[in-house]
Design goal:
The chain has seven helices and nine strands, in the order H-E-H-E-H-E-H-E-H-E-H-E-E-E-E-H. The protein has about 220 residues and is of the alpha/beta class. It has a single domain, classed as Glycerol-3-phosphate (1)-acyltransferase (3-Layer(aba) Sandwich), CATH 3.40.1130. The strands form two sheets. The chain has a seven-stranded mixed sheet with strand order 1-9-6-2-5-3-4, sandwiched between helices. A two-stranded antiparallel ribbon has the order 7-8. Strand 3, helix 4 and strand 4 form a beta-alpha-beta unit. Helix 1 packs across helix 4. The longest helix has 23 residues.
Length: about 220
């Protein structure tokens, strides 16, 4: 969906924020393995949060109360700009960059902010996929900053799955929603090309397993 009309660019972010807030306020929300996040937060070190693109909406909402300390990376595209504007409306810091345009510079800028104490948020499979294939930027950023990667997924019992490349999930009102938090993952600071690729594949498998666990999550 291309969103180049100035009116849409201006009006959609607050409308989406209002809609997300209204819908998620009706949902019964829980967390799985919240202790993993709390242990990391207690260290005072930056955390790199990551999830698949199709489940991004809930994360933008979920972390709204801590958004002042989080910097997100959005793609340098019309759709990425919309996502960034919605995240910014919830108070998050947003940097723009992608594999095709300004991505390395944006990663380095985010790394600098994380070294100053900010937490980072990055989409695991990027702005254009392939679907559920972890992009190299995640492990690069973790190696450069020393931040622990915290992979996450969402389970919901009432949702629409759109026919888009990312199979974007629209959680419906009055759903039961669970934030599933994985175990922290660290990239050794001296990792070279092959070690980085090995880490990428391990983390990709972990994220896929989290996602699959969400598809069969029991809300009983």
């Amino acid at each position: 969906m291309k969103l180049r009309h100035p009116g849409l660019t201006r009006l959609l972010p607050p409308a989406l924020k209002a809609g997300m807030t209204a819908i998620f306020a009706t949902c019964r929300q829980t967390e799985v393995n919240a202790a993993a996040r709390e242990r990391l937060l207690a260290t005072g070190q930056p955390i790199l949060f990551t999830c698949w693109h199709g489940q991004l909406a809930y994360f933008i909402y979920k972390f709204r109360t801590s958004s002042q300390s989080i910097v997100l990376l959005a793609s340098a595209s019309a759709d990425g700009d919309l996502i960034g504007r919605v995240a910014a409306s919830f108070g998050a810091g947003v940097l723009s960059g992608s594999r095709q345009k300004g991505g390395l510079a944006a990663l380095r800028q985010m790394a600098a902010l994380m070294r100053q104490g900010k937490h980072g948020g990055i989409i695991a499979d990027g702005s254009r996929g392939p679907y559920h294939r972890l992009q190299k930027g995640v492990v690069f950023l973790a190696r450069e900053t020393g931040a622990s990667i915290l992979p996450m997924a969402v389970a919901s019992d009432r949702k629409l799955v759109l026919q888009t490349w990312d199979r974007f999930e629209v959680i419906l009102p009055f759903s039961r929603v669970a934030l599933i938090i994985g175990e922290p993952f660290v990239i050794p600071p001296d990792s070279k090309v092959q070690a980085m690729e090995d880490c990428r594949l391990i983390l990709e498998r972990h994220l896929r397993d989290l996602f699959e666990s969400g598809q069969y999550h029991s809300f009983a």
